[in-house]
């Protein structure tokens, strides 16, 4: 074998190192880049395997030479591609050619950070041993590393990367290659790399004053495009679109197939005790829907199920509030949720209910399996009992002060504190009170079942090590922190009526606690969908199932610890989660959603605004809180709609289709592509590749940005070529105009497919305008071909989006602003809330009066209406007190602004504290932040005129 290379080229070094590792004898021949004997396409270096076989792409030659294990990670190929398309060209241009292009320099700096982060706590990039990706990256970086000045400039903050370079340098195979092929200087080496690879920067000038194009448009003339990418684009464009896989039709019932990639998707089951707001929607159902739609267009065998969580105390509480039976409450809110999700185009294969008979059957069955396997035990438990109501109080029927040190939240529930986010035992609450009658409950004992989590911990730990790498980062942090702290037995039964009854004598008057019961809903809803449900949840050996579960981060403990522990303990081959995709929280205008205060947009509100569901979907996904809390903003919604959808995406598509209609009779013209056209296709292919990579990892927010980047490239491509001018020129110019428009129409067809997961209605409308049917994506072969060949007849074009006027946006913002600082008032000396606004109190009293009248007229149980009447009495007392102590309009506008500012600071600081605690930070780190939060809350309480609760137990009033 013979390596042909120019002097000083680090790309030749990687071939020599690879040959040394495989023990392959290779010779090298140093030639000039202008030598006429260089074989086409005249790139250096290249590897001549024999007289009939030559490998022209250096990284392909490394792959050929380097010895690989049987199962090579796909990440190796990803690194090889990244090195050849990003790292090597950037170094060649910045150091070899002295390029001042800030975009390329920025990309180079980002590349070093990427490499450094990838080597965190690792010896090599992808495997436990050095592989082909390490060789290629090391050889490319070596000249930079050996130059003291450049190394300090670019690698000073990359300690992991420097350590890795030094480690690889000690390899005998590397030392031998360095001895046989000298690298004289960094500048000379990267000049040799530049000329050998023939990297080029297209020099077409950027258009000035381009109208209707986002000012974030990529300057694709300044993108580095390799000859390998150009050739790949040429090859792809020449393929017949009929060679590509067709979109499979959906079967009546989706069942696993051994020859397919079987994807099972669930979205967290929302409680049926309220209307979902935008944060609830993006946190689970919308995120899961986008991923499900993506999987389907990739022809993955996909089942997407969801439903409502209907058992538990949340339902009982809501039933009491509305004077309805639990069953009626569930039916009412199930219909509300179903209608909202249908309007948002959530494509469930089945949307069920956890109160269905299948739930009782499967929940009891799993309990008995765990009990028979020795993972259950009974124990006498102290529970709070309300003498006045004559009932044991479930967790959600108890409120009080949070028992955790450093948290003074006074409205913690009996199962969880919303102030610090930690789980709570109801009996540990400070100053507990019955949520129904407000009286102080007493402790009584009751025999309950516990699941022995410490006994299951070794199983769970082993399982999590294998599963957690596929989870979102916050899910990994939360799940691992639970195991790090050590698991404790958890009570799984309660003395309630509304729930799945315990199927054992002496316990049949008890029901299962919601955290044990609810996740089983995924299985029971699957069973309601098909009697063959076990094919998904207890699959055959040859049916591999990959389970993705979408949720907000507060649901992670139940899906990362509790539910898997139960499935593993049953030991019946149940499918366990491979990918937990958890979001952070979506706030509303930097505050919180509040149904009671009328703050924020809820599902039914979105429908009533007149803004299309696709626009809501687009914006929620654009601001999806993937790695940190984000915020819904009306102003930002209008900006993104008007700039990204209308002026960028819609502008590109509409210009192309209207131009084709007006000048080519709605027919795709003859196309003769040149290098500029293929450069454009290369850039779009890169975005397509990134789009698929992001969605495969459920990074949905990033995926939508790649769609918008394609349309930005398209706008600039069209503006640069100006087909409207070319039409007035020579016959060759007219063919050129047709080429540009034909290419743009083909990219619009690609966009119609990529939009489908995000904006399904828009995708369908665009396909109709293009006169095409649904097409599939092929993640195994990411290429752009002629989706619309010459002669294809287009449909009728029309604008896809409309402008959101500032006046309308401001109107909607005011409508959903509520009254900050105002909230329902809790009396009995517990904690007055809000600023005692008289109008709010009067409205609450009117509402409560109607509730009491309704209960009495319907002859409801005396305890129910007496409890509501007690609340009414408290509200009236509160109004009387407010009238005496707080004259109307006593809180002026400046104070309102201060309140708003402090509320925002409290919210942000609360997020800081939660993240530190969830991340397992030391007390010394989070305690100062807690103190800061308490100080902010104190300032807010003083401004609102509410008492500052010090957490001390008060004396009883006589």
UniProtKB/TrEMBL annotation:
Residues 69-189 form the GST C-terminal domain. GO terms for cellular component: aminoacyl-tRNA synthetase multienzyme complex; cytosol. Residues 898-954 form the WHEP-TRS domain. GO terms for molecular function: ATP binding; methionine-tRNA ligase activity; tRNA binding. It is found in: Cytoplasm. Its EC number is 6.1.1.10. Gene3D superfamilies: 1.20.1050.10, Glutaredoxin (3.40.30.10), HUPs (3.40.50.620), Isoleucyl-tRNA Synthetase, Domain 1 (1.10.730.10), Methionyl-tRNA synthetase, Zn-domain (2.20.28.20), S15/NS1, RNA-binding (1.10.287.10). The keyword rRNA processing does not apply. PROSITE patterns: AA_TRNA_LIGASE_I, GST_CTER, WHEP_TRS_2. One of its GO terms (biological process) is methionyl-tRNA aminoacylation. Keywords: Aminoacyl-tRNA synthetase, ATP-binding, Cytoplasm, Ligase, Nucleotide-binding, Protein biosynthesis, RNA-binding, tRNA-binding. It catalyses: tRNA(Met) + L-methionine + ATP = L-methionyl-tRNA(Met) + AMP + diphosphate. SUPFAM superfamilies: Anticodon-binding domain of a subclass of class I aminoacyl-tRNA synthetases, GST C-terminal domain-like, Methionyl-tRNA synthetase (MetRS), Zn-domain, Nucleotidylyl transferase, S15/NS1 RNA-binding domain. InterPro entries: aa-tRNA-synth_I_CS, Anticodon_Met, Glutathione-S-Trfase_C-like, Glutathione-S-Trfase_C_sf, GST_C, MARS_N, Met-tRNA_ligase_1, Met-tRNA_synth. Belongs to the class-I aminoacyl-tRNA synthetase family. NCBIfam families: metG. This is Methionine--tRNA ligase, cytoplasmic.
């Amino acid at each position: 074998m013979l390596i042909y290379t120019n002097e000083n080229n680090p790309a030749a070094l990687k071939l020599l190192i690879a040959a040394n590792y495989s023990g392959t004898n290779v010779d090298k021949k140093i030639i000039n880049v202008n030598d006429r004997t260089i074989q086409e396409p005249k790139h250096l270096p290249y590897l001549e395997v024999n007289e009939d076989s030559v490998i022209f792409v250096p990284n392909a030659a490394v792959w050929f030479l380097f010895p690989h294990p049987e199962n090579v990670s796909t990440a190796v190929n990803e690194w090889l591609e990244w090195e050849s398309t990003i790292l090597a060209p950037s170094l060649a241009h910045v150091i070899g050619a002295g390029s001042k292009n800030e975009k390329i320099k920025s990309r180079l700096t980002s590349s070093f950070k990427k490499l450094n982060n990838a080597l965190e706590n690792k010896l090599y990039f992808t495997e436990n041993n050095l592989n082909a990706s390490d060789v290629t990256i090391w050889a490319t970086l070596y000249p930079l590393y050996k130059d003291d000045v450049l190394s300090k400039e670019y690698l000073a903050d990359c300690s992991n990367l420097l350590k890795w370079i030094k480690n690889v340098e000690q390899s005998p195979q590397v030392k031998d290659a360095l001895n046989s092929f000298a690298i004289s200087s960094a500048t000379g080496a990267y000049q040799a790399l530049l000329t050998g690879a023939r990297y080029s920067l297209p020099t077409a000038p950027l258009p000035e004053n381009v109208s209707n194009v986002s000012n974030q448009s990529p300057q694709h003339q300044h993108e580095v495009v390799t000859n390998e990418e150009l050739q790949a684009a040429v090859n792809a464009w020449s393929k017949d679109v009929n060679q590509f896989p067709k979109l499979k039709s959906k079967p009546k019932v989706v069942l696993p197939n051994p020859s397919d990639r079987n994807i099972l998707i669930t979205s967290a089951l929302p409680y049926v005790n309220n209307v979902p707001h935008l944060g609830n929607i993006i946190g689970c159902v919308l995120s899961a829907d986008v991923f499900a739609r993506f999987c389907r267009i990739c022809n993955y065998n996909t089942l997407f199920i969801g439903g409502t969580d209907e058992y538990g105390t949340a339902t009982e509480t809501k039933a009491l509030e509305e004077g309805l039976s639990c069953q009626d409450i569930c039916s009412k809110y199930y219909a509300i949720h179903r209608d909202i999700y249908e309007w948002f185009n959530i494509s469930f294969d089945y949307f069920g209910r956890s109160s269905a008979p299948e739930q009782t059957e499967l929940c009891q069955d799993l309990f008995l399996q765990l009990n028979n396997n020795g993972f259950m035990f009974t124990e006498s438990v102290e529970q709070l009992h309300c003498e006045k109501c004559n009932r044991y109080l479930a967790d959600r029927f108890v409120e009080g002060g949070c028992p955790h040190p450093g948290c003074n939240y006074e409205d913690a529930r009996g199962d969880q504190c919303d102030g610090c986010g930690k789980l709570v035992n109801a009996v540990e609450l400070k100053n507990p009170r019955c949520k129904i009658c407000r009286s102080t409950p007493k402790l009584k004992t009751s025999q309950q079942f516990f699941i022995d989590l410490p006994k299951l911990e070794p199983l769970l730990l082993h399982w999590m090590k294998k599963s957690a790498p596929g989870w979102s980062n916050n899910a990994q942090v939360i799940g691992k922190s639970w195991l790090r702290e050590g698991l404790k037995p958890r009570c799984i039964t309660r003395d309630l009526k509304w729930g799945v009854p315990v199927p054992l004598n002496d316990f049949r008057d008890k029901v299962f606690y919601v955290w044990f019961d609810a996740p089983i809903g995924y299985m029971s809803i699957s069973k309601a969908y098909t009697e063959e449900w076990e094919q998904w949840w207890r699959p055959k050996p040859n049916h591999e199932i990959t389970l993705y579960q979408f949720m907000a981060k507060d649901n992670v403990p139940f899906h990362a610890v509790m539910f898997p522990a139960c499935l593993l303990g049953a030991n019946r081959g149940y499918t366990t989660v491979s990918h937990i995709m958890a979001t952070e929280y979506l706030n509303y205008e930097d505050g919180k959603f509040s149904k009671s205060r009328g703050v924020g947009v809820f599902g039914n509100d979105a429908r009533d605004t007149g803004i299309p569901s696709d626009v809501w979907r687009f914006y929620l996904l654009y601001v999806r809180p993937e790695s940190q809390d984000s915020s819904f903003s009306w102003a930002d919604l209008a900006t993104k709609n008007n700039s990204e959808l209308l002026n960028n995406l819609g502008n590109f598509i509409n210009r192309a289709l209207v131009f084709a209609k007006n000048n080519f009779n709605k027919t795709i013209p003859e196309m003769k592509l040149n290098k500029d056209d293929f450069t454009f296709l290369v850039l779009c292919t890169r975005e397509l590749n990134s789009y698929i990579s992001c969605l495969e990892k459920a990074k949905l927010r990033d995926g939508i940005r790649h769609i918008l980047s394609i349309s930005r490239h398209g706008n600039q491509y069209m503006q640069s070529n100006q087909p409207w001018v070319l039409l007035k020129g020579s016959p060759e110019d007219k063919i050129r105009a047709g080429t540009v428009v034909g290419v743009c129409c083909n990219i619009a067809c690609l966009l119609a497919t990529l939009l489908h997961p995000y904006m399904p209605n828009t995708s369908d409308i665009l396909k109709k305008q293009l006169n095409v049917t649904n097409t599939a994506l092929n993640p195994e072969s990411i290429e752009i071909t002629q989706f619309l060949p010459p002669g294809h007849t287009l449909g009728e074009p029309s604008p896809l989006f409309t402008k959101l006027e500032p006046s309308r946006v401001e109107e909607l913002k005011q409508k959903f602003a509520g009254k900050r600082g105002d909230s329902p008032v809790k009396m009995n000396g517990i904690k007055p809330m809000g600023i005692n606004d008289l109008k709010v109190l009067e409205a609450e009293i009117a509402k409560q009066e109607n509730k009491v009248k309704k209960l009495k007229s319907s002859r409801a149980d005396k305890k129910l209406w007496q409890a509501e009447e007690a609340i009414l009495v408290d509200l009236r007392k509160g109004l009387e007190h407010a009238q005496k102590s707080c004259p109307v309009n006593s809180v002026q506008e400046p104070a309102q602004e201060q309140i708003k500012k402090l509320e925002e600071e409290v919210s942000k600081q609360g997020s800081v504290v939660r993240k530190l605690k969830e991340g397992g930070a030391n007390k010394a780190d989070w305690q100062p932040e807690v103190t800061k939060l308490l100080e902010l809350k104190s300032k807010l309480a003083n401004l609102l005129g509410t008492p500052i609760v010090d957490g001390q137990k008060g004396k009883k009033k006589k």
